[in-house]
Amino acid sequence: MPASLQYPAAKGVALKYKAFGEGQERFAHQFFEVLEDGQTVVGESLVAKESRFVDDIEHRGGELDWLARDKFVERFCKIQDHCVIVAKAFNEKLDSITTLDKNTPRVSFIDCQVYYLTDDKRGQFSVIVEPKLEGRFEKWNNNNGVRMGNLCVSSVDMIISRYLNPSFYKFI
Q1: pLDDT per residue over 98-134, tens digit each?
Q2: How far is Cα 80 from Cα 96, in angstroms, rounded to an integer?
Q3: Which of 38, 37, 45, 61 is nearest to 119 (CA)?
Q4: Helices and strands (H, E) in the chain, number of each type
Q5: Which residues contact residue 146 at a Cβ distance below 8 angstroms, ignoring those fewer than 6 apart?
Q6: Secondary-structure class of domain 12-171 per CATH
Q7: Gap between the Cα atoms of 29 and 11, Å rounded
Q8: Rounded distance, CA 70 to CA 143, Å?
Q9: What does the domain layout of the chain look like in residue ranges?
Q10: Would you state the torsion angle of the CA atoms of residues 56, 51, 27, 32, taken in this order, to the nearest 10 degrees?
Q11: Whether the predicted model's global pTM rises above the 0.85 cut
Q12: 81 near 113, Cβ under 8 Å?
């Protein structure tokens, strides 16, 4: 379902064309909600993500294959929703361990929404939008789950792995 604008006074959105980040599968763009003047930013800073492969897909009759875009968005949102469920179960397990320090960090995932946009240059397209996280972050594993750097396997890694269900990923 298309997202409603998050800020009540917002009348539109602004998407920066040049990506500020890129991963193996996605581009990340600055994204803002704006007032009617199209210039004044309102609300929090957001990030719009889109597949880096969608533009490579063959066009049908001069139009981009919407099924490919929707498949990317659906896959991303299903995985994100599953991660929220796994994180909740994981945190509940941590909460049940009476000897665990109460300050032990918990796992959480940010909510995402789908925005359907129309642009004079690009036509219609969809993006996944999340709040922009401030700070410096390092990826601790690659897209195949292999740990990067000198990180050791911790008890937290082992607990998380018990909650991951490999059969979930087969339908994708």
Answers
A1: 998 888 888 888 888 888 888 887 777 788 999 998 8
A2: 24
A3: 38
A4: 2, 6
A5: none
A6: alpha beta
A7: 20
A8: 21
A9: 12-171
A10: 120
A11: no
A12: no
